[in-house]
Every structure is written in structure tokens, then in C-alpha cells.
């Protein structure tokens, strides 16, 4: 609601890119930083979101960027979409929470099959030994074919 109030309307907010949504509300600090050639702010109104608040201080900038990107997508769907369901917002929130867990716990990204797998050296060695290279099945181009191609040119 604060973002919509700051942008003026939902349609105006939908026109903003994620980078602008991220620093919306920190314009004064942004222009001061640009004028004095200092670091620009990482977050504006989005800093007050509960997802940002529960993140470790060193990850707040990254999570702010992720949250702004997902929020911008949800805003556009909300403004221009015809469906009244908030399914994309729930999916985006789950993605942001997953990124927070990844940064905080250092866990791996989930695999395509739905669960994270650890590297098992014994299993990798067993898989590679069962499917060893067979030189007999290898095909080698003959020298005569190469000479014939050179003569044609």
C-alpha cells in the first residue's frame, strides 16, 4: 500500500522497473548519493517488509533486490492481469523465502526432481567404473579420408 501511495497509482507503479521499486521512498538519499558520488541506497520503503527484516544484515541488500524483482512482477500481473487470484504472489514469496534460506544456511538449490542432493564420491566412482570407456567401440577417421578431402579443395 505504501508503494502504491508513493507511486500515485497501481498503473504508475506497474510501469516502474524492479530497480526503481527497490529504492522507492529513498529518492532523497539517492540523489544526495549521486550528487556527492557516494554509494547509492540499497532499499527504500521495501526495507520495512517482514522478509527483509528477518534476513541477516549482510544479506539484506541481496534479498531486497530479489524481493523488488518479484514484487515488480506481481504488481504488473495485478495491474494488467484479469485474474483475481494472487497465485503468482504466493509463488514469488516462496522463491524469496527459498533464497533467504539459501543465503542464511548455505544450502544448495533444489534439483529438478524436487530435492537437494549432496555429492557422493563413492556413488560417482561406482557410476564411472561401470560405464568405462571402450577403445574397441571408438571410431577413428582414417588418414585416407583426410587426404581425399584436402585434394578436392
TrEMBL record:
Keywords: Nucleus, Ribosome biogenesis
Domain of life according to the entry: Eukaryota
Species this protein is from: Florenciella parvula
Gene Ontology molecular function: snoRNA binding
Sequence similarity: Belongs to the NOP5/NOP56 family.
PANTHER family in alphabetical order: NUCLEOLAR PROTEIN 5 NUCLEOLAR PROTEIN NOP5 NOP58, NUCLEOLAR PROTEIN 58
Gene3D superfamilies: Nop domain
One Gene Ontology cellular component: box C/D methylation guide snoRNP complex
Compositional bias segments (type: Basic and acidic residues): 141-153
Entry protein name: Nop domain-containing protein
PROSITE patterns: NOP (PS51358)
Any one GO BP annotation for this protein: ribosome biogenesis
Nop domain boundaries: 1-105
Record Pfam families: Nop (PF01798)
Keyword Amino-acid biosynthesis appears in the UniProt entry: no
Localization terms from the record: Nucleus, Nucleolus
Region entry Disordered, spans: 129-153
Amino acid at each position: 500500500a505504501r508503494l502504491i501511495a508513493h507511486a500515485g497509482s497501481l498503473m504508475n507503479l506497474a510501469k516502474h522497473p524492479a530497480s526503481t521499486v527497490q529504492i522507492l521512498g529513498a529518492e532523497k538519499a539517492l540523489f544526495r548519493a549521486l550528487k556527492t558520488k557516494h554509494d547509492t541506497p540499497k532499499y527504500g520503503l521495501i526495507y520495512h517488509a517482514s522478509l527483509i527484516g528477518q534476513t541477516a544484515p549482510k544479506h539484506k541488500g541481496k534479498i531486497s533486490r530479489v524481493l523488488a524483482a518479484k514484487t515488480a512482477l506481481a504488481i504488473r500481473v495485478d495491474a494488467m492481469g484479469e485474474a483475481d487470484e494472487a497465485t503468482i504472489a504466493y509463488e514469488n514469496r516462496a522463491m524469496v523465502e527459498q533464497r533467504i534460506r539459501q543465503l542464511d544456511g548455505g544450502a544448495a538449490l533444489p534439483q529438478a526432481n524436487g530435492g537437494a542432493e549432496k555429492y557422493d564420491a563413492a556413488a560417482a566412482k561406482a557410476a564411472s567404473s561401470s560405464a568405462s570407456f571402450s577403445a574397441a567401440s571408438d571410431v577413428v577417421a582414417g588418414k585416407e579420408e583426410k587426404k581425399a578431402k584436402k585434394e578436392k579443395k
